[in-house]
Amino acid sequence: GVVIVDAGGGTIDVSAYHMTTAPSFEEIAPAECRLQGSVFVSRRARTMLQEKLRESQFGSDEMISHMVTIFDTTTKLRFGNENDPAFVKFGTIRDKDVNFNIRSGQLKLMGSDVAPLFEPSATAIIEAIEEQCYVATKPISTVFLVGGFAASEWLFTRLQSHMTSLGLNFSRPDSHTGKAVAYGAVAYFLDHRVSARVAKFTYGTRCAVEFNRDNPQHMMRASLAIPRPSGRRVLPNAFSVILEKGTAVSETKEFRKEFITEVVDRSACNTIATEIVCYRGDSSNPRWTDSEPGMFSTLCNVHADTSKVASTISPRRGYAGLQFYRQQFSIVLMFGLTELQAQLCWKEDVS
Predict the structure, then answer these.
(1) CA angle, 328 as apex, 324 and 331 as ends, to 5°?
(2) What is the pTM of this model?
(3) pLDDT tens sequence across 250-300
(4) CA distances from residue 72 to 67, 156, 224, 325 in whole angstroms, order as listed
(5) Which of 252, 254, 257 is nearest to 241 (CA)?
(6) Which residues make beta-bridge pairs with 324?
(7) What is the DSSP string of 186-216?
(8) CA separation (Å) from 268 to 166, 210, 261?
(9) For a disulfide at 115, which of 20, 82, 91, 167, Cβ 3.0-4.6 Å?
(10) HSE (side-chain half, CA atoms, 13 Å) at 292
């Protein structure tokens, strides 16, 4: 197995792959994303410079912003050892303030002050890699570091030391680390070399389920039960899982689940509308959206014109002889490509 660490400006994206039959790969763990890209190193550098130069003539907001820009484009990439000083060349030979280690337009920083700016990002990458190794369905032997942030000497050295201690091979491209992802995107479009991916989250939809007195979770929500035209009582705020987190999905594989609606007015069957919901929590079996409301988010809404089939639905008799109509449909999710696709399907013209 191979772990790819895409260290970019804003995020650190980590994914794991295994070669099935050359040159085809499949994802073997849910991808990780951490908000610890190189821009956060620059933000921490700004805070450090503001504190260090607060009493200096070079401590204005404008000058600090200029120093951060220089740090971002040169110092951040060249810094490699906390035992060596780092320099920010921001001005001319006439700019100096010896009390703040500024000479000839150059600010000298102790390596021990610069290294902590990178450490949170390195820690986040290490944690993400170790998580990939833990959940991957195949053993991991190699880690590749790519992306613009991969050009940082300190980051590469820090990660290399840790990966070696774990018995993992660790490397990065010799040059143009920032172009590796772009090259990979083109290669995927041309060759489709990744044949399977792993669902990063759990996907499904909000729905209502039939009330069951023998279910403790249902009894906790008994006051919310709603009568339906058929005479059934249902509970809202349920979550129906269609695609579970960690599921390996091939490019053409479909995941579907059937649902029904009951209405009194036939015209209500002319359209179907549902939402695709993502669960981002830790539960392996999320069933109720009201238990962790902050962990559920709507990805999209799917609509369908079912007026043709609505005219063919036969009426039914429900509670107390009430006439109603029942419509069946399925939600279909496809996850094999780089983005999620959602569809609605139903039967019509069936003799």
Answers:
(1) 145
(2) 0.68
(3) 777 889 999 999 999 988 999 999 999 999 998 989 999 999 999 999 999
(4) 8, 17, 56, 64
(5) 257
(6) 316
(7) HHHHHH--EEEEE-SSEEEEEEEEE--TT-H
(8) 60, 21, 10
(9) 82
(10) 14
